[in-house]
Design goal:
alpha+beta; Thrombin, subunit H; Pdz3 Domain; 3 domains; six-stranded antiparallel beta barrel; six-stranded antiparallel barrel; 32 strands; globular; stress response; Peptidase_S1_PA; serine-type endopeptidase activity; signal; hydrolase
Length: 474
C-alpha cells in the first residue's frame, strides 16, 4: 500500500526533528541541533493525588512518584568514522530516554537514539548503570528494544491510546539535554498524524514541552499509563515550539513483540495505492462523509487484486475496525500478519460490501528511514578539522544489499552532517549518483565531490524510492 511520496528539503520553513540529544564525549557542550507496575498497587492509588480545575493543571506528582523510577537515561556511544575526504572525525554520544517495560530488564526507546552506536548504557534513577544489549531496532516505526541484566526492576504500566481523547492532559518524563527525570506536561493536540506519506505510524500530537534528549521517553495519561513514546518535534529553531509527536504505545508494543520473538519486524501489505476522500468525491460516490481511503491504484499481482478490489473503491473498514483516513488504513494493514486473511469493507456503487484478502508481506528495505524524520544525531566538528564539502561518512554496498536493492552501484550513508544533512540526506540513504554519474565506491564519491563546483545533484535511494536533492557544498 502506498501513497504519494515527497521530500522536504532545506528550503522548508519548518522541519521535523528527532529529539535525541548529541554531546561531545566529555558531555560539556549540548548540541541543540537537534506491563505491569512494580509491585501490586491499584491504579487508583497512583492517581489519588491528581486533581485539577478549569484554571489549573492537575497534580502529576503521584504519577511521577509511582512510575518515575521506571524511566531511564540512555547513552549511545559511537566510534570515530571517516568522511568522504578520508579524514577521521571523533565519535560522539547521543543521549536519550527510555522506559522499563518488564522487571527482568526490557527497555523501550527510539531507534534513532541507539542507531549506529557501538556501546549503549542505561542509567536508572537510583544511580545504577548497566551495559545494554540492543535486542532489535526498527527504522520504520523508530522503535528500539534494549535488554539489561537485572531483576525486580520498576516498570511502567501500558495503556491503550485508542481510549485517549484530544484535549486530555498528558505527562512526559525524560532527559532533555541530559537533565534526568525531567517532568513536563500538556494536552493531546491531535491524533493519527501522518508525518510522512509512507509511514504506517499514526502519531499522537501534543503540546508537551520536549527537547533533545527526550527521545524514547514515555508519554503518560492521567491514569498513569504509558500511551506513547516521545519521538519528534516540529520546529523552526531545533528547539521545542509547541508541536511534539509520540509513537502510539500499541504500535510500539507490536514492534517490540516481533523484535523480541524473531529479531525483525514483518508488516502486512494488500497492494493498493490510496488517497484521502475529498468532499466532492464523497458526494459523487454517495458517501455521507469523507471517512475512508480512496483506492487510486491496485497492484495487478497483489493480494487486493486477487480479492477483487478495484480502483475507485473506498476502503471503510478492516477486520471490523472502521477506517477514518489513509493513515489509519496504513496503520491497520501494517499490523496484519502476512499470510493471514483479513476482511476489508469497501464502498462501491452506492453500497458497502465485504471482501476477503489474503495479506501479503512488505518487502524488507535496505534503508527505511522516514523521509521527513531527521533521526541521525548531528556530530560536533573537530576544531582543527576542515569542514567537509559534502558531509557524509559512507561505506560500500555489500553484494547482498546491491542485489536486494537492484542497484548498479552506490554507497551507504552512515552519518550525514553539514551540507548533506541540511539538504535532507540521512543515515541509511544510498547515494547512487552525483550529477548523473553512478557512484561505485567511496573513493569515487570523494573524487567527484572534490572536483565539483559549488553545488551538486545527489541521487539517493530511500525506502526503495529514488529522489534527487541539490546540495550546496561546503
Amino acid at each position: 500500500m502506498t501513497t504519494r511520496k515527497y521530500w522536504r528539503g532545506s528550503a522548508a520553513a519548518c522541519v521535523v526533528l528527532a529529539i535525541a540529544g548529541t554531546y561531545a564525549i566529555s558531555h560539556r557542550n549540548a548540541d541543540a541541533s537537534v506491563s505491569e507496575a512494580h509491585g501490586e498497587v491499584a491504579a487508583t492509588n497512583a492517581l489519588s493525588g491528581i486533581t485539577g480545575t478549569r484554571s489549573s493543571a492537575p497534580d502529576f506528582s503521584s504519577i511521577v512518584s509511582r512510575y518515575g523510577a521506571a524511566v531511564v537515561h540512555i547513552g549511545a556511544k559511537q566510534a570515530a568514522s571517516r568522511d568522504e575526504n578520508g579524514e577521521g572525525g571523533r565519535g560522539g554520544e547521543a543521549l536519550g530516554s527510555g522506559f522499563i517495560i518488564s522487571q527482568d530488564g526490557y527497555v523501550l526507546t527510539n531507534n534513532h537514539v541507539v542507531e549506529g552506536a557501538d556501546r549503549v548504557t542505561v542509567k536508572l534513577t537510583d544511580g545504577r548503570e548497566f551495559h545494554a544489549r540492543v535486542v532489535g531496532t526498527d527504522k520504520t516505526s523508530d522503535v528500539a528494544v534494549l535488554k539489561i541484566e537485572a531483576s525486580n526492576l520498576p516498570t511502567v504500566k501500558i495503556g491503550d491510546p485508542a481510549n485517549s481523547k484530544v484535549g486530555e492532559w498528558v505527562v512526559a518524563i525524560g532527559s532533555p539535554y541530559g537533565f534526568d527525570n525531567t517532568v513536563t506536561s500538556g494536552i493531546i493536540s491531535a491524533k493519527a498524524r501522518q508525518m510522512s506519506d509512507d509511514s504506517p505510524i499514526p502519531f499522537i500530537q501534543t503540546d508537551v514541552p520536549v527537547n533533545p534528549g527526550n527521545s524514547g521517553g514515555p508519554l503518560f495519561n492521567l491514569n498513569g499509563e504509558v500511551i506513547g513514546i516521545n519521538s519528534m518535534i516540529y520546529s523552526r529553531t531545533g528547539g521545542f515550539q509547541g508541536l511534539s509527536f509520540a509513537i502510539p504505545i500499541d504500535a510500539a508494543m507490536h514492534v517490540k513483540d516481533q523484535l523480541v520473538q524473531t529479531g525483525h519486524v514483518s508488516r502486512g501489505r494488500i497492494g493498493v495505492g490510496v488517497q484521502p476522500v475529498s468532499a466532492e468525491q464523497a458526494k459523487s460516490l454517495g458517501l455521507d462523509s469523507t471517512r475512508g481511503a480512496l483506492v487510486g491504484s491496485v497492484d495487478p499481482s497483489g493480494p487486493a487484486q486477487a480479492a477483487g478490489l478495484r480502483q475507485g473503491d473506498v476502503i471503510v473498514g478492516v477486520n471490523g475496525a472502521r477506517i477514518a483516513n489513509t493513515t489509519e488504513l496504513m496503520a491497520q494493514v501494517s499490523q496484519l500478519t502476512p499470510g493471514s486473511t483479513a476482511t476489508v469493507n469497501v464502498w462501491r456503487n452506492g453500497g458497502e460490501r465485504k471482501l476477503s484478502v489474503t495479506v501479503g508481506a512488505q518487502s524488507p528495505q535496505v534503508a527505511s528511514a522516514s523521509p521527513r524524520m531527521q533521526r541521525e544525531p548531528q556530530q560536533q566538528q573537530q576544531p582543527d578539522q576542515a569542514r567537509p564539502r559534502l558531509g557524509v561518512a559512507v561505506r560500500p554496498l555489500t553484494a547482498d544489499e546491491q542485489q536486494e536493492a537492484s542497484l548498479p552501484g552506490g554507497v551507504v550513508v552512515q552519518q550525514a552532517t553539514g551540507p548533506a544533512a541540511a539538504a535532507g540526506i540521512q543515515a541509511g540513504d544510498i547515494i547512487v549518483a552525483v550529477d548523473g554519474k553512478v557512484i561505485r565506491g567511496p573513493q569515487q564519491l570523494k573524487q567527484i565531490i572534490s572536483q565539483a563546483d559549488d553545488s551538486v545533484s545527489v541521487t539517493v535511494v530511500r525506502d526503495g524510492e529514488e529522489a534527487s536533492v541539490t546540495v550546496t557544498l561546503g
